[in-house]
Amino acid sequence: MERLREVLAYRRLGFRLREVAELIGDPSTDAVAHLCRLRGLLLERRDRVDAMVAAIDRELAARAKGLNVTPEEQLEMLGAQLYDTIGGAYTATRRTEPRIAAQIWDALEDAQTVLNVGAGTGSYEPADRDVTAVEPSAVMRGQRPTGSAPCVAAAAENLPFEDQSFDVAMAVSTVHHWEDPIAGLREMRRVARRVVVLTFDTDEPGWQDRFWLTRDYLPEFAAVLAQFPSLAGMADAIGAHAEPVPIPWDCADGLFEAYWRRPGAYLEDHVRRAMSVWTNVGPQAEQRAVRSLSKDLDSGRWAERNSDLVSLASADLGLRLLVA
Fold it and tell me: What is the top-level taxon of the source organism (predicted)?
């Protein structure tokens, strides 16, 4: 009955049968985890519908008064926050990757009190420390598992804590979403004695060519990070050194580069929905990239271009750990 319930519930939420099979076939996920995931997806859908109804009501009231409605106000019904757009897919594909987690947790050293900034659904939070989470998105907060660390609704740029309140502040794959990354990093430095940040390196010349997906199919990715601070600038802001973070070929965390040796995954809609890159580049670039990749996979061109990847167990695709 549990398995049948899970299949029917995921189907009702719009998942395809192959996607459902992958979800319920995951040996690391039990009935409780599935219920938490389904609850998060339903809450995200409810919150999004409520927000859309409220935005429509405001637009109807404005039009009834003969007021002009701006393009920004018209788009409000589609949602304003990036994580409120992509957050619903996180529980399906974004999990803690043990090998990346080990590197992050080693950098925490003997810290007992940890602040996780931009915490999302709680991936990479160490279970053996006293963790406090900070997450601005209600959708993401609603998907945090039962029993996870207490979570405060706040932004990185304005952390509601006294100076030096924590042994260490950590942030994992979130800095590129902050309105002011440097200000957020300095806030982390203010409230904690040490800082550990997983981010992305755009300093290296030709960095777009490190990953075949951005090199051959999604050149728009460079524009997405055009205003992102340099790795050197971020390191200077908190007095950090940078360590490379290799991505294993079977990475459990569905981050943008995770499927570098499993290209067919990028054809799956639910996989892309949990990656902010696709929302940022827009539907036209996304559809073109997917069509082109699908064509090259069918023809064997992708395999021919990337034959050197088959023997690699991990790859350096620009992930960096800043440790201060």
Answer: Bacteria
